[in-house]
Design brief:
Blueprint lengths: L6 E2 L1 H5 L9 H13 L4 E6 L12 H7 L7 E6 L2 H12 L6 E7 L2 H8 L3 H14 L5 E6 L18 H13 L6
Parallel strand pairs: 1-2, 2-3, 3-4, 4-5
């Protein structure tokens, strides 16, 4: 097992705030290039509500178009059970993401801004997402009050204590979501 696995997330995190829609073919080229460069995990898209994040209205189409590289995980972010259902439907159709990310923010302020709910509400949401399909591998990403999603199992970061991070990781484990 590698000591560190880098996940390329530009195609999802880097494009989500672009004011103009980025063509699906351009996204495909980015994702495939990241895999060719050797990234073992590429966050390809998000199953966000297209009315909220129009940049990912093409999530299923993008995943259907991708040429897959062996031993590479193509990830999609899911913020709610409906998104997990879409991810599972695409996977069962033969072209979905082979890894999903469930979002958990480590601070109340970031949870409100990013997910429009409280942390307590998001934990209930994560438990429902994890229960939706126990055999789907889910990587849970924790964020501090950062504008971009980052893995925060290091710290303390902006007052985020190690204990808060440990408590968050234990909640993830209780939700039956597997982490990498």
């Amino acid at each position: 097992m590698d000591a560190v696995t880098l996940c390329e997330c530009f195609a999802r995190d880097g494009l989500q705030h672009e004011p103009a829609f980025v063509a699906t073919a351009a996204k495909r080229a980015l994702v495939e290039r990241f895999a060719q460069l050797g990234f073992k995990r590429v966050e390809a898209t998000s199953y966000s509500n297209p009315k909220v994040v129009p940049q990912f209205a093409d999530a299923s189409e993008l995943l259907r178009m991708l040429s897959r590289k062996k031993n590479t995980y193509y990830k999609a972010t899911c913020a709610n059970v409906r998104a997990v259902d879409r991810a599972i439907a695409d996977l069962e159709a033969g072209y979905g993401a082979n890894e999903i990310s469930l979002l958990v923010s480590a601070t109340e302020a970031h949870t409100q801004k990013n997910l429009n709910r409280t942390r307590a509400e998001q934990w209930l949401n994560v438990a429902q997402m994890a229960a939706a399909r126990a055999d789907v591998r889910a990587a849970v990403f924790l964020t501090s009050a950062a504008p971009r999603g980052i893995v925060v199992l290091r710290g303390p970061d902006k007052g985020l204590s190690y204990q808060r991070q440990v408590d968050t990781a234990l909640k993830v484990a209780r939700c039956s979501a597997r982490t990498f």
